[in-house]
Serine aminopeptidase S33 domain-containing protein (Populus trichocarpa), 333 residues
Amino acid sequence: MLSHPIHQANEKSPYGDLTREEFYKKHQILHQESFMFNKKKMKIFTQFWRPDDPTSQLKGIVAMVHGYSSESSWLNELTAIAIAKAGFLVCALDLQGHGYSDGLRGHIPNIQYVVSDCIMFFDSVKANSPNLPAFLYGESLGGAISILICLKQGYTWDGLILSGAMCGISAKFKPMWPLEKLLPLAALFAPTWRVVASKPVSSRSYKEEWKRRLVANNPNRPKSGKPPAATALEFLRVCEYIRKHCYDLGVPFLMVHGEDDFACDFRSASFVYESATSKDKTLKIFPGMWHMLVGEPKENVELVFGTILTWLRDHAAQPKPKPKPKPKPKPKP
């Protein structure tokens, strides 16, 4: 039975009263981190987690993509540890402008550069273990990026897991009218201006108060969770692109989403689920749960991540299909 490591954290540290090294040793996890240079010569922070058991065979690769104003460390690495303990090699990177990667904090004016970074890193990981099934795991904005990766790379992935994916932005979270209508002008003349959202995101993303404090105590957390104007406009464009092209999503996938998600409306996720051509697709809408599912009370966290790990184990155990022809290139979002 899974017990997500979030339950061992406290409001000051994801590792509780242990050091990071002690935490990894306790969970028998090998961890490695480094930097890569992307096509724009920016330093991008990368990480790996795997079971510290030379006798066990890896079940597969899970490539994780974090959400906006987050990073691959802190809370996200607890999920990485949970997946690695289940027998997977987990890899992740900090998106441009996030965590330890280069870039203006929280500024993503063109999603294609981020997608390119992810593909560059994840392809290098898959090339080292070509016989292992490979899965994408995207959370919030990372879910949207993971969909874009799958639409671009087709059947080079064996499956996709989407948690609170940004398939559409909730009306409660969008900039207030008439600001949304003025976004194109703001993005052109003041691209780094921080857009005012209706309410603080974290206060409506993590249900448990102590987890909100834990997120706030992250030394890498940006001072403002408000996206710059060009970034906010790009998010709206990405959601529209996904809405128009989700019919071409053919990989097996699992979507988990909170019904009371304040940031990314579950109805948009439902639209993607219903429209996708994949013959192996599952949608789980959890009543009463919020945007960040790791921010739920313990019994909810266990339910959600039990669902995720069961899906991963089942799909990793299936025979790896023969490579299919690459899809025709699609217009960039």
